[in-house]
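It is worth pausing here to work through a concrete case rather than discussing structure prediction in the abstract. The textbook approach is simple: state the sequence, then state the predicted structure, then interpret. We follow exactly that order.
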Amino acid sequence: MKSRKRNKPQVRIRVETREQFLRRIVREGIEPHAAEIVAILKSGGFAILAHEPSDMLAGQMRERFLNWDFVRYPVIGLHQQQVLSALGADDDTTANWVNRERGEFDYPILVFSADAYILLNWTNDGYQFEPDLADVDLN
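Step two, the predicted structure:
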């Protein structure tokens, strides 16, 4: 009797540049929720987006954001003090990003993805990572 070979599941590892990652966040995370995000930003709030968070990060997000159901509601809006409280902005870059005076078309978007949070700016030049820090480990 011949033994049957079983196909092992293929593991796909995504390798992408920062620019590819940013384009994917915009395409898969921001664009589908553009109306919600724009309403939050125009009201002076911070748009908070869950985009493929790891299980570890998901648990931390629920703790820090009062049991946020990011599966049902991948976008929420918070005010400046709420963001500072939730992140505990211990590092200068995050605190500066949250507290920065913003121009007419300079909006903050906080993205939770993989094991980190990502500071984005939406300006006339498009979407950009915060120059001083692209992501912060929450551990």
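Step three, interpretation. Residues 18-137 form one domain. The radius of gyration is 18 Å.
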